[in-house]
Amino acid sequence: MNIADMGFIPGRIMEAIVTTYNSDGSPNAAPIGIYPISDTEIQMDIHEPTDTRSNLLRTGVCVVNIVFDPHLFLKCAIIGSGKGEAENEIAKDETISAENVDAPALKEANAWIELKMQTSEEKTKSDMHGEMKFSRVKCIVENITINKKYPIAINRGLFAAIEAAVAKSRGMPVDARHIEIMQRTLSPEEFKKIKELL
Asked: Are 68 and 158 in contact (CB under 8 A)?
């Protein structure tokens, strides 16, 4: 099994929850776009100032968690952003230690990819969100763990939640269209949790 077998194909941007440890050992989680480079190497652009960036530059390792939970994507974008150990996106009991790297993995993930950082380059870009500084991080795959043989079917509400999480992480309001898609396509219980969070 390699990352291409899970849909991580060069040219695509895949969305996942990246987990790291804060300096006090508490878990940190954030939705991040994953750019596959090859079957064994990925790239991430991690904006500053974020806990994920600080943790990854400090430890040199992380875990990419493949999840299909729209609430979790939003929760990790909204709660704890930039607050380090003071406010965690996920509880310690929601994670386990990865096998080959010193980073947490989400217990409920369908699969996870353990990564070791190879290079980090500081960059700046300007777009519709303004000027942003970020670290372009290249990592090599150390281990892949498959937890669920058949992942959950894709749901449009998940993608609307990911777009909402991206907007919130950039300090922008959530688009009403994304809320409408989530309300129409997610279960009432899922949407209720998201509505309370927003």
From this structure: yes
